[in-house]
Amino acid sequence: MSDIDDIWSTLKRATRARIGIGRAGDGLPTGELLAFQMAHARARDAVHGRVDFDAIAAAFPDRTVVRVASAAGDRAIYLRRPDLGRRLGEGEAERLPKGPFDVVFVVADGLSAAAVEAQAVATLTATFPRLAGLSIGPIVLASQARVALGDEIGAAMGARLVVALIGERPGLSAADSLGAYLTFDPKPGRLDSERNCLSNIHGHGLSPEAAAGKLAWLVREALRRGLTGIDLKEAAPQEALADATASTPRLGEVQ
What we know:
Helix content is 35%, strand content 16%. The protein has eight helices and six strands. The protein has helices spanning 3-12, 30-48, 53-58, 75-80, 113-127, 149-157, 208-225, 238-242; strands at 65-69, 101-108, 139-143, 159-167, 178-184, 195-201. It has a six-stranded mixed beta sheet with strand order 1-3-2-4-5-6, sandwiched between helices. Strand 2, helix 5 (113-127) and strand 3 form a beta-alpha-beta unit. Helix 5 packs across helix 7 (208-225). 42% of the residues are buried.
């Protein structure tokens, strides 16, 4: 192995990006081309896949789980009309239990069914114990959903805070990345700058356990300070991430 090959090998161990792939004449080496095509196929499958929401509901037998759908009637419409994915379908709001609740979790398919199926249950399971003392609403499973659908769901349920766990747009290095979006005082029309996001929750990124620590800290800080978005920075000390159970005002308490 030449010195330059050794350098590329070292760099490749530090990233999943396609670097130092070489060439075969005017094209890619066969192995690299096949790997690229496989990654592209996985990304397409993630976008067009369907989440097994029944399996997710079965993973939480002790919690109430509610199913809703956006105004996008099917996957093709969902991909062409992002605006419809941000609104509940007709009559869907009436199916949602009414709070008030401190926090409501929405599990949405988003743009990666693979992400939701791989990461959502583990992330929720690790997060719930860290939110002891808070009023947590039923888990809402939302199909053909965009991030902002959580705002309408949270408003309909009387939630002080909504957390949307959603499949992120797949890339060629990760097709199963989950994102968590937090919005305080959710209601239709909230801006992206008014929410916080934890992204890259997957096997080669932020683990569900680590994400749960950060998520619980953000939930408690959002409720304590009464805000999310650009004014709420994720600067949790390590001990807070390990055990995010600090005192947080509950429903009815003065903030």
